[in-house]
Design a protein that fits this description.
By secondary structure, the protein is an alpha/beta fold. The chain has helices at residues 37-45, 63-74, 84-91, 111-119, 135-147, 165-170, 186-195, 234-239, 257-273, and strands spanning 25-26, 32-35, 52-56, 79-82, 99-103, 107-108, 125-130, 153-156, 180-183, 199-203, 209-210, 221-226, 242-245. The protein contains 9 helices and 13 strands.
Amino acid sequence: AGKTPGAAGGPYRPKVRVAPGRKAVPANDVPELLVGRNPVVEALRAQVPATALYVALGIDIDDRVNEAVRTAANRSIPILEVSRTELDRMTGGVLHQGLGLQVPPFSYEVFEDMLVAALEQQVPLLVALDGVTDPRNLGAVVRSAAAFGAHGVFIPERRATGVTATAWRASAGAAARIPISQVTNLTRALKACQREGFVVVGLDADGETDLYTLEAAVGPLVVVVGSEGRGLSRLVSETCDLRVRIPMASTVESLNASVAAAVALAEEARRRAAL
């Protein structure tokens, strides 16, 4: 309560600034190897960054192999022919169908830098994920966040998926268009947002506030999406200023995490467009 944008509807101004020039934080130093003909082709179509395409010698050539090689060549991605035995070793015996795409570690935005940049927007909007473990759900949430005008996404380092090639592919390339940060402690990051004037709302099927009557939607806001199975964790739920439910016409199971995020962000975008 009492957390509103700047006077007369002006841009919300940050109270503090982080020194510029901080570098993005890589998740780790180990590249990911995406395997299988369909996954590799889909990743290349989605412009997932890649450093090498591995093609096993003597494989049966089909349209997917041709497309993968052609796309990699057009993007100047090195194409390396290796023996099937070598590709088996590289993939740990996972079924690869003769194709492997090496993807570098994702470079995350520094959280403090993302927060400062968001605060420079007229009506800041951030999305946080609490323990989402399916990279496809993460990618779908990132895609919705970018589509509905969010200014950043942040996720915890532990007990949650990071931005893998699968997540990137599910985001349809949106992972390249919106800042994504990885934080050591999600609760601490949410409290940092609150100190800067954000209202933190958690999506909760049993929430006390109806999404369609959420007055905080037109101010600086963090939307928190819970995990696929248990929803919001206890500490995160207690940290939220409000727990928001999405009204549904019938008594069905709670919405998938990415679907709930899309519904909530679409409503936020509608309310903000009316300002």
